[in-house]
Amino acid sequence: MSQTPLPYRPHNHRACVDQALADAHRICNDAKARLTPTRERVLELIWQSHKPLGAYDLLGALAQDGHNAAPPTVYRALDFLQQHGLVHRIASLNAFVGCAHAGHRHTGFFLICRACRNVLELSAPHVAEAVDQAAQDEGFAAEDTTLEIAGLCPACQQEGGHE
Amino acid sequence: MSQTPLPYRPHNHRACVDQALADAHRICNDAKARLTPTRERVLELIWQSHKPLGAYDLLGALAQDGHNAAPPTVYRALDFLQQHGLVHRIASLNAFVGCAHAGHRHTGFFLICRACRNVLELSAPHVAEAVDQAAQDEGFAAEDTTLEIAGLCPACQQEGGHE
DNA sequence: TCAATGGATGAAACATTATAACATCGCATT
DNA sequence: AATGCGATGTTATAATGTTTCATCCATTGA
Q1: How many CB pairs below 8 A link A and B?
Q2: Phi, psi of B74 (to 5 degrees)
Q3: Which among A76, A98, A120 is the end of a domain?
């Protein structure tokens, strides 16, 4: 059984993209939602790396495709992809990243390297539990959790040591 | 010993403001930092309620004071207040809220009611521990944690039940 | 086949949030 | 008074996100 590839470590990234696109097709098909060319292209662009992309980065990339899109085009595609759990928005960066666990019910939990900017998405159920419990203790009905940790990934910690 | 007032429940809010301003004076004094009139006024405005305020809300409020300030004025005051742990930025709202535990080392952890928009800041050390542990398990050096839970506060859950 | 429907996209304008760059002020120390 | 320096003023602009209305196009049902 293969391990989840770590963003900051060399891996066959083509496989990440292929997997993401295949998942997207399956998920949209199951949900009777339309993964149109624009939506698929935006998803593919997001998956070009494990670094979050801003909406205007995507807009620029579409422009390079020859697709002269306006902001709503990108935001609409992103809304769709988020609704179907294919991408996540990183609130602390105003940027978007591919969902590493598409199709699984989960609360996104992100480790964001401030040096290389790669993002690792964890599932960490016990963290989710601790958070939910803390909310419940206050009588609060949690609906949506934003959990983003900025810091240094293992690779960039070593880099830092050589400075 | 008095309890921490809950944002969504009636309380003598004047006391919250007074406490926040007194803490701010003490903290800035200890740090040899200058709590100038603009900075103090921004802090006071933020504490007018437990609802986060946007930078441009603050700008408008300053304008009503007769202070014709430009955006950098507000952002600079907010930067200062954040650096001294007197306010927090809520990334998911692009807005700012007074710090409920000024002077104590802590990781902000916010319960945000989507109905009344009040925000309760928790300390929840065991959550912070679970998060740090999860990061460490990945070899990640956590520096800054953003943890924001959107949902319904106890008061607004009851409201909702009557709909 | 054809019109109706409704989701998806195009396009223009605008709203909101945040920063850059440079000038000036005012106070504390000399 | 001269200097140094943090704080503020001012103008412009960048970056991010939304509203609105028109148009397209695939499917459906007559």
Answers
A1: 115
A2: -70, -45
A3: A98
